[in-house]
Design brief:
It comes from Xylanibacter ruminicola (Prevotella ruminicola). 30% of the residues lie in helices and 23% in strands. It has 338 residues and is an alpha/beta fold.
């Protein structure tokens, strides 16, 4: 069967691989759409330390069940539109013991630590297959990245009395904006791109701040009665945005970090103590986050087409990846249509 493979730095090719043999507890999925994630771009650039080349990328899935194994429960049937939970969990580490399997110490994500879903078919354990209600497979490819943002909002314990800043309006940040707005919070989107900020307001942000052209500190004080935001969610992964989060959050506020900073970050650690901050990491997503995203997308209010920057055939994927690398800030999601 046809698959997309990254054999080395700045390389991508179409390969033929053997079909998987299904186990009795597995479901065979026919892939319809698979999204390229930021981690896939990092892999292609040779900057993803968790990846061993060559690798088949992809973990943002919109698929149809082709076949089910003998031990698969009856609620999963051929023809169903589904997505998947692309993470593994060992069941033995501290995270798993604490029922936070999304942060498993030994997690292997599709397309990162193991071969992913950029192929025509993939067999997965039935527990990892998530029915997608009345959604179409194209929309399903947006579920996983949005669920990461939804999970960050859970980690932040956002409520309707909070002012929440989301730094970074990519797909994950948009998920955090949507979930915060659904919880009734006042949401402030922060980014360097005015087009993304406009879309963030369409998706639930009350205010938008261009961090490149505006005085962020002054604007946040103005929008929060001089207190600063109760919650800041960092969804960029850079030293300046990490520092901004700690500097600008209110006293006794919560900072939730999704992005991986590529360099060491220096902090005024006095703010950790003086403000009595809660600084929390947020990794991947839990099953309830996937369900929450599906529930939101079923409403039909999400501007799905505006979140999909390109829809390409497998043969067009190398060119699409090159174009993304040249203008990373302008891309939400590139979907590969099998």
């Amino acid at each position: 069967m046809k698959a997309i493979q990254i054999p080395g730095e700045r390389q991508m090719e179409i390969v033929n691989i053997p079909e998987q043999e299904m186990k009795p507890n597995e479901v065979l999925l026919r892939l319809k759409y698979v999204g390229f994630c930021g981690s896939d771009l990092s892999t292609w650039l040779g900057k993803n330390p968790m990846v061993k080349m060559p690798v088949i990328p992809g973990h943002e899935v919109g698929a149809v069940i082709e076949k089910v194994g003998a031990d698969v429960p009856e609620h999963l049937k051929p023809g169903m539109v589904v997505t998947c939970n692309p993470y593994t969990n060992c069941g033995k580490c501290a995270s798993c013991r604490n029922q936070r399997v999304n942060a498993c110490q030994h997690n292997e994500t599709l397309g990162v630590q193991r071969n992913g879903a950029m192929r025509e078919f993939i067999a997965l354990p039935w527990e990892k297959v998530i029915p997608a209600g009345n959604l179409d497979p194209r929309t399903c490819a947006l579920i996983e990245p949005m669920s990461v943002g939804f999970h960050a909002v859970n980690r932040a314990q956002v409520t309707d009395i909070d002012a929440v800043v989301v730094i970074g309006c990519g797909m994950v940040g948009m998920g955090a904006i949507v979930r915060s707005a659904l919880r009734g919070a006042t949401v402030i989107a922060a980014d360097i791109d005015d087009e993304k900020l406009a879309l963030a307001k369409e998706m639930g942000a009350t205010y938008a701040i261009n961090t490149k052209t505006e005085d962020v500190h002054a604007r946040l004080l103005e929008l929060t009665e001089g207190f600063g935001p109760d919650v800041i969610i960092e969804a960029v992964g850079s030293a300046p945005t990490y520092q901004m989060a700690v500097n600008e959050v209110a006293f006794t506020g919560r900072v939730v970090c999704i992005g991986y900073a590529k360099t060491d970050v220096s902090f005024q650690t006095k703010f950790f103590v003086q403000k009595e901050l809660d600084i929390r990491g947020s990794r991947n997503a839990q099953p309830q986050d996937f369900r929450a995203v599906i529930h939101y997308l079923e409403r039909g209010t999400c501007p799905v087409d505006r979140l999909i920057s390109a829809d390409v055939a497998p043969e067009q994927a190398p060119k699409a990846m090159l174009q993304w690398s040249e203008a990373p800030g302008k891309v939400f999601r590139i979907l590969v249509h099998f």
